[in-house]
Amino acid sequence: MVQIIWLVAAVLVLFSLGYFGYSRYLARFVELDDANTTPAHKYEDGQEYVPAKKPVLLGHHYSSIAGGAPIVGPITAGVVWGWVPALLWIAIGNPLLGATHDFVSLSASLRHEGKSIGYIIGQYVGERGKNMLLWFAFLTIVLVVAVFALVVAIVFNAYPEAATASLIYIGLAVLLGAYLYQLNLPFIPGTVAFVVAMFVGVFLGIQYPLALFEPASRAPTQTLVLFEGMGGTWLPGAEALGVNTAAWVPIILLYGALASALPVWVLLQPRDYLSSFLLYTGVGGALLAIIVGTLLGSSSQPLVTNLEPYYGFIGRSGAPLFPLLFITIACGTISGFHSLVSSGTTSKQLNKESDARLIGYGGMLGEGLLAIVALSTVAIVSPDVGGGIGLALPTFAEGGGIILTSFGIPPTFGGPFMALVLVSFLLTSTDTAVRLGRYMMEEIVGTPESSVESVATNRYSNAAIQAVPAYVLITSGSWLTLWQLFGGANQLLAALALLTATVWLANWDDSKQLISTGAPMALMVIITVLGLGWLAFHDNLYVKFIQGEWGGAPTLFAQLSAVVQIVLALTLVGLGVGLVVIGYRNISSVRGQGTGTPVADGGSSRDD
Q: Which residues lie in coiled coils (predicted)?
């Protein structure tokens, strides 16, 4: 067994080198300059373009990018293949690939009026490439919404305390938005008052847990069950997910749809700012608790690894380490979803260009810290591999509660608190994803010229377009393949965001080196295409339809979900490979024949 503190130390050292060394180089490389007017100031409209203070925007950005993925991914990978492969991919890949990806996506959007990566690549390779990337992003968003809504529902079922606390903190966020933006009251006193109220909400959640139907067995005896004794087995997905989990899913999807339609000052900015204090406390507190508990021996049990370092190339679930380890860990190392956040909402709120280094590069390192905390919790608890997501998520709360005992915090408080930390990440990412999906569709359609296009771009109907297929995927109960499909799509999107940055740099200046973005892009294309192919042909087509191994009765929802997953995987591969070919041709043309006509600061355009 190895002390957990050594896992944390390895990550802190490599992340520090990345931030103080490599990110400084990248900031000079893309020529950040505070003399430039950011899109938030240039197009300020009170709705989408709203300049934000650095700590507020960092809180929003970090909360939006750090969903459940950097928790669930490392936990799942650690249990299947061992903690060493997971640690190495997080510690090395995050500063070199993930943080670079987030930073250049944000920087490119700054130089293109706060537009998305789809718009940016369209400036250089034409309308066809733009629409391909936007459709890819939109399909990925559907998977993001499905996965995050499912994970929130599972946590609410396992920890009803988190459901109550989440409702309270969402209400507080709306009040904070009115306090800051409508009443224009003092920032610091308001922050203190609302943060204190939020932690009071955690206490109230522990005292008054809330469930819709009968929750998980670990739920407190005083849990308030709204529909107690009313069955609920008729709910879609109830057999696979459990009645209470299945009941929460549509409510969470409805929340995401409604929250995404509100102006950013009403809920998104203040809620993300508030939740950032939960997240900093949870992640920072857990890291500090590991150090204190190790040095003073004050934790309730030794903080050592109870997982094996390595379970072999074919892990305990029968899955090959390459390429599935990488798309299983997903956001803990690199995430294409972050490029949508960086170029979709963050770039529209950045106060000055120099803020991009901390928010873009530093924000991703923060997600890596969350990933190592998640890996630490599962290494301590060492759950049975057969538990799936229903065990993985409670493991984070259980292991986190054990770690926090280093400060004398009882597990009865520490566990629910860590569950709320997880949910606060997830809720922010869910409605941010729906909002980004609307942006994608608006850019695909442009100016609506028919009733169908008007419906597709409407903020309410567009949310339904995303929520319905997400609900179909969730109700299948096929967690592992859905998670890895999400990971594969998400990381292939990261490869395409890096492709976009590479095309931008190539068109900007012949002297710009393309290794920093091009090498990670090529690596991620190989990994994700192979991973998505494995999921489509092996896990779904061969195992389910040919061998008939469904892990239970092959319900209509399960079969429909498997078909949707196959079609999605192959569609994403086709779009991704097609875009890589188009991008490569553009780069070869530009570097061989010179740049086109400049269209933005730090870029130029070329037609097909």
A: none
Q: Tell me the residue ranges of DSSP E strands in 24-106.
A: none
Give the Cα separation of 357 and 336 in Å (integer).
Answer: 18
Render pLDDT for 445-495 as a digit per residue (tens, 0 to 9).
888 888 888 888 888 888 888 888 888 888 765 666 677 788 888 899 999
76 pLDDT tier (thresholds 50, 70, 90):
confident
d(C-alpha 49, C-alpha 309), whole Å: 47
314 strand-pairing partners: 320
CB 607 within 8 A of CB 126: yes
74 close to 371: Cβ distance less than 8 angstroms: yes
| 263: Cα within 13 Å, side-chain hemisphere | 12
The angle formed by the CA atoms of residues 230, 234 and 240, to the nearest 5 degrees, is 110
pLDDT digits (tens, 9 = 90+) for 17-75: 999 999 999 999 999 999 999 999 998 887 778 888 888 888 778 877 876 678 888 98
d(CA 463, CA 470): 11
Q: Which domains does the chain have, with CATH numbers?
A: 2-590 (1.20.1740.10)
Closest CA to 167 of 130, 194, 221, 204: 204
Coil/strand/helix, residue 452: helix
How far is 249 from 233, CA to CA, in rounded Å?
Answer: 14
* CA 528, chain centre distance (Å): 17
For residue 583, what are the CA distances in angstroms to 103, 136, 237, 301, 527? 20, 15, 41, 53, 18
Closest to 359 (Cα-Cα) out of 371, 372, 349, 369: 349
Long-range contacts of 540-544 (CB under 8 A, 24+ apart): 540/481, 540/565, 540/566, 540/569, 541/566
Whose CA is closest to 276, among 586, 64, 510, 97? 64
Judged by phi (left if over 0) then psi (alpha if -120 to 50, else beta), residue 551 lies in left
pTM: 0.83
Going from the C-alpha of 391 to that of each of 166, 195, 428, 484, 514, the distances in angstroms are 21, 30, 23, 17, 42
**CA gap 392, 383 in Å, rounded:** 8
- The number of residues making up the chain comes to 608
